[in-house]
Write a structure and sequence with these properties.
Rossmann fold, ten-stranded mixed β-sheet, alpha/beta, N-(1-d-carboxylethyl)-l-norvaline Dehydrogenase, domain 2
Length: 309
């Protein structure tokens, strides 16, 4: 791996823009793949990042396109599209993937690494969890208002590797709170558990976590969502600790009270939402394993009328 990476951010929204922007600021050769007014704004005036973790900065000459075939092979692909855009993005991104290309997904679900491995080969795909609260606040502007801004990266098969350690070093040098993880499958499921509750509950209530935790009823439901997802993880063979749900709840309660999950922001904005690949996936796996998932079912039932925006 060269010290300067060529990076393609497939889906330069809040999450992709935050992590890709940090790498660009550090001098890596980053291209943002975007569309519509956001792409037009980046091409005409650069990309503005307003962040509580890294300060505010502007990337004047950041490369941006909607044509992945125009970029060439990348050292690193950050796959940051919404889950419902996965198939379309995969169809277009083959020109980015060469012999040594690494692909990391910042998506919220549990299926991304498998789908990307099937499309491009497991040797290209690293497991990743990315936890940050960031969004496109207006075209050409990414605002990061909360979340720890962390990235955990690891080999899908487990263990450590030189490429993971080198990539983590590049991210840390760029100001990202990144770490290598020996059991990335566990980390992905822990994040999935966290995001099903955060996104599901804030989307269903249209309220931030502070308002949810101010009520005993919604706090109890939030914990039940977490417990159901953790139970599914164990049924899937993941060694999820028995106290995982309570620990995730406690950690979330210590976060900024104004936080709303990405699906919550999308519901409020009238956008398409990924409920089927989050809480809906929990309900689906629960049916397969004979595990009751009433809290997640309630989230799905409440949100399905808004699924297509």
């Amino acid at each position: 791996m060269s010290s300067k990476l060529s990076v393609a951010v497939v889906g330069a929204g809040g999450t992709g823009g935050y992590y890709g922007g940090a790498l660009a600021k550090a001098g890596h050769d980053v291209t943002m793949i975007a569309r519509g007014p956001h792409l037009a704004a980046i091409k005409s005036g650069g990309l503005q990042l307003n962040t509580v973790l890294m300060g505010d900065y502007h990337l004047d000459n950041i490369a941006a396109t909607d044509d992945m075939g125009s970029i060439g092979v990348a050292d690193l692909v950050i796959f940051a599209v919404k889950s419902y855009g996965t198939d379309t993005a995969i169809e277009a991104m083959a020109p980015l993937v060469g012999d040594g290309t690494m692909i990391v997904s910042t998506q919220n679900g549990i299926d991304s690494e498998r789908v990307l491995s099937e499309a491009f080969g497991a040797e290209h795909v690293l497991g990743c969890t990315a936890t940050v609260s960031a969004m496109i606040s207006e075209p050409g502007v990414i605002t990061q208002g909360g979340g720890p801004g962390t990235m955990e990266i690891g080999e899908v098969a487990g263990g450590m590797s030189a490429r993971v350690e080198e990539l983590v070093t590049a991210c840390v040098d760029a100001g990202i709170t990144a770490s290598a993880h020996e059991n990335i499958e566990m980390a992905i499921w822990q994040k999935f558990t966290f995001i099903c509750a955060l996104s599901g509950m804030t989307a269903m209530t249209r309220k931030p976590i502070g308002d949810i935790f101010a009520q005993e009823t919604t706090t109890a439901m939030y914990l039940q969502v977490l417990e159901e997802v953790a139970a599914i993880a164990r049924a899937e063979g993941v060694a999820m600790p028995e106290g995982a749900a309570a620990n995730i709840l406690k950690t979330t309660q210590s976060r900024e009270p104004f936080i709303i999950g990405s699906m919550g922001h999308d519901v409020i904005a009238g956008n398409v939402i990924e409920v089927g690949l989050l809480n809906g996936r929990v309900v689906e796996l629960g049916a397969q394993h004979g595990i009751a998932t009433p809290a997640n079912f309630a989230v799905v039932a409440a949100l399905m009328p808004s699924e297509m925006g």
